[in-house]
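Sanity check. The docking grid for 2'-O-acetyl adenosine-5-diphosphoribose depends on where the pocket ends up, so I'm generating a full predicted complex first rather than guessing from homology. Inputs follow.
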Amino acid sequence: MLSGAGLSAASGIPTFRGADGLWEGHRIDQVATPVAWKRDPTLVRRFYDLRRVAAAKAEPNAAHAALTRLQRQWGPERVVLVTQNVDGLLTRAGAPSVIEMHGSLHRLRCEAREDHPRVAVSGPQDPEGECGLCLAPLRPDIVWFGETPHALGRISEAVAACTWFLSVGTSGVVYPAAGYVEQAAWSGATCLEINPEPAGGPFNYVLRGGAETLLPSLVDHWLAGTP
Ligand code: OAD
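Predicted complex below; grid placement will be based on this.
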């Protein structure tokens, strides 16, 4: 299951490319690239501070709860939850195992070395914070444009092996995530999209509407039998 910002829309977190999208106030190159961080760390820190505070105030919605129920019942090997979202709401809903391929608002990382230990953060980031290993400044643990998403090997294996590929609330424009439906279809999976707007891709089935409305009954249906 691959999710995007639409999964959290009903929790009050704006999508990126919607009419009220977060990018509207900021160009992507102002806030979501390593170059932006070098140029104006205060602006970038503030942008992610606001998003962290908003995510902490938001509550998981019925769609997060439904996916959590499915993963708890069928287990994390059978139900692989991959999300592009950085809000942590699937984990807060109680999902046992979530692959956050674009990072997390709730962690900081070393600016100099990606393999240095992450640091948990709540509320605004301390601008003076340093890496515990090398004393370099800390930055949001977000995968910015031009950087490599997390766990790509694990995700590719899961996509190639799945029998059902479910895409929830993503516009399918940011790669590599946007290419997973082609990979799944090519490997023989049945592909299903839940999204009020067509995102495009080789889907066998599309359910048009909000994930918070559609996912709970779909999961009930799946749990009542074997898809
Ligand atoms: P987008 O904002 O591009 O797309 C959100 C999708 O959610 C759209 O296709 C909407 O139609 C759909 N949507 C809106 N409300 C919904 C609802 N209630 N239920 C289901 N779907 C709904 O967000 P993403 O596809 O997640 O990357 O964007 C991908 C990446 O672009 C993000 O992870 C982010 C951004 O740059 C990083 O931050 C690295």
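Relevant for the grid: The longest strand covers residues 103-110.
Also worth noting: The helical segments are 28-31, 34-39, 41-57, 62-74, 89-92, 152-161, 180-186, 211-224.
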